[in-house]
Design goal:
The structure holds 2 protein chains of 2 kinds. By secondary structure, chain A is an all-beta fold. Chain A has no helices and 9 strands. In chain B, strand 5 and strand 6 form a beta hairpin. By secondary structure, chain B is mostly beta strands. The chains are: A mainly beta, B mainly beta.
């Protein structure tokens, strides 16, 4: 599994765009990049997944540069309810069953 | 409604008393997994199952057992719980392992276990 590195915490204010970067220097050719969001005392939930370039859905955008050694989760115009822990997951697209979520980034949105 | 159901949500038990945390999913997923979450340590995988009757160790399997006799259920068994197993536990299911292309993992509500 590719090891990922994220900032431990970030602060933002309501209405701002937030970008959380994940470093995955040893990402393999077949690896996908997936982000999950977790609220206190709840299970993580899927946000977005990508392989290369840019992916956008109704919640977020995911930017992946050409070398794929990092990725950036972008949350537009955050609100207080976006305060959560965000996990970057990079896992090989094979039959290997292990999944390691890492420590995540705690995002705190302030009024 | 697609969901992963864990029971119980909260449990306080004593050292050495065997317990089982149940997990059930209604999405016909092949893959199921158990994680524990401790302050400052993120999510750590305990065991996973690629399919019925196929289970394997995650990163922190010591002190735990699992079984996968049918696709929808994946119970976590603590034969002799100890205080260091006090934690928040999550069960998850997905078609393929989390992170696989095109795969979204669904998590249960969590089980907060305290071993005294």
């Amino acid at each position: 599994l590719a090891k990922t590195t994220q900032p431990i915490s970030m602060d933002s204010y309501e209405g701002q765009e937030v970008n959380i970067t994940c470093s995955h220097n040893n990402i393999a050719t077949n690896d996908y990049i997936t982000w999950y969001q977790q609220f206190p005392s709840q299970g993580p939930r899927f946000i977005i997944q990508g392989y290369k370039t840019k992916v956008t859905n109704e919640v977020a955008s995911l930017f992946i540069p050409a070398d794929r050694k990092s990725s950036t989760l972008s949350l537009p115009r955050v609100s207080l309810s976006d305060t959560a822990v965000y996990y970057c997951l990079v896992a090989r697209n094979t039959n290997a069953g292990k999944s390691t979520f890492g420590d995540g980034t705690t995002l705190t949105v302030k009024p | 409604e697609a969901q992963v159901t864990q029971n119980p949500r909260y449990l306080i038990t004593v050292t050495g008393k065997k317990l089982t945390v149940t997990c059930s999913q209604n999405m016909n997923h092949e893959y199921m997994s158990w994680y524990r979450q401790d302050p400052g340590l993120g999510l750590r995988q305990i065991y996973y199952s690629m399919n019925v009757e196929v289970t394997d160790k995650g990163d922190v399997p010591e002190g735990y057992k699992v079984s996968r006799k049918e696709k929808r259920n994946f119970p976590l068994i603590l034969e002799s719980p100890s205080p260091n197993q006090t934690s928040l536990y999550f069960c998850a299911s997905s078609l393929y392992p989390p992170g696989t292309g095109g795969t979204e993992a669904f998590f249960g509500q969590g089980t907060r276990l305290t071993v005294v």
